């Protein structure tokens, strides 16, 4: 029972796709991912070189320079929320790249941390609409994984012309401080470095942290000098009111003062070094992190850009799992779904992925039906597997490419509503970390059932191919104009002008829905956490799975000898 029967899956690229198809698909996806890189670079530039120069002229570093100095050499930050507010314009033609704050998973002194850094090149690190929600989302990720949280504070408070959109609501700016409190209540270490402005509500963010450092340029105030001058006719600077002289030596609201950004970053690294080391190596046992037998970058040529074209889902798993080894559970039930266990970076994780193409129909032997759809057996299968992962403490990776649930008379008679509700209940009550990847289609209730963002995965990733919607644009156009169409969806009207009006209307609906399905739209409004390149998926998943195992003791993690998985294997396919 202790043996985890991982077996090889996948085939070499030459067998998985002919060279021409592979090259065409790689080129098409490569163009999309080149655009992704370009758009990322634009966000990372903040408000541009002029504002970077202003920061440097003050003897300070930019937010991303601080992050680069904080992380371990040779590692990279895994950003989330890069495209929040992307393309939106506020006030007098102002933009807020990344909502004016960097949130990223970073390895610091060998420990994964959540880093939250105000972008001081964007309106002096102000909080824009959605900035609070983005910070709170990062805090929630840190709480779920018990990751030390590091605040790099340089914030001039709310962007006041848009204050009504970020101040009062349930997820408004004040909720950040509740999240500070919940992190503290759950024993999650919080460290704060204050590098400059820390005004009004922002002044509360560092205080609950376990350690607070201030540079000589930093100050923390409920009200800045300008407001006090107006209210009390006093001539003061913000440093006079709440600089390190006040808060380190008089109020006790900060612990240490340091001369500059570089020294403060070094002090934060030293504090992280004092924390318990990661438990990931313990859970790896004797297994190391081994690359897949088939390189992860090959996914770029194996996944068609056109969502109507199919691919072999085993080839995806083979390029995500260590050594391309996988233990599939319940292979003879619910053929439209593949679920099983593999190692990622040397650590076990559960995988659930939609099978593409045509699959068998057990209700009609010999018949075929579309994959990428949830049928009764597949729903029951992944529900049981999800419960087993939760019982065993395995993080779950959901790989969505789904059109939705089966529909029709037979589906209703089979009780798909009840089976789907059972799956939703399972995913809603799981305590094991879940990570969701929207590979291509994420449609209808299938998006919900496979742990879409409303069902609280720790992180949801999209690719450049992701299409997130209730239904396709053409389908919705037909539904909208259904009363004006015959059974073959042809326009009934005979009058030429009326026909043109219906055609124009249907085309307009289809184009609007297609535009709304753009992954950048979802990322802009925080309907997904990050857009990543397909070739980056493995590295993101390695990081996320390791985070799941870093902090020991807060959740159940069974040793493989007593996994519920073994029971499932015996009951569904083994010797009885």
TrEMBL record:
PROSITE patterns: COA_CT_CTER, COA_CT_NTER. Residues 291-567 form the CoA carboxyltransferase C-terminal domain. InterPro entries: AcCoA_carboxyl_beta, ClpP/crotonase-like_dom_sf, COA_CT_C, COA_CT_N, MCCB/AccD1-like. It comes from the Bacteria. This is Propionyl-CoA carboxylase. Residues 29-287 form the CoA carboxyltransferase N-terminal domain.
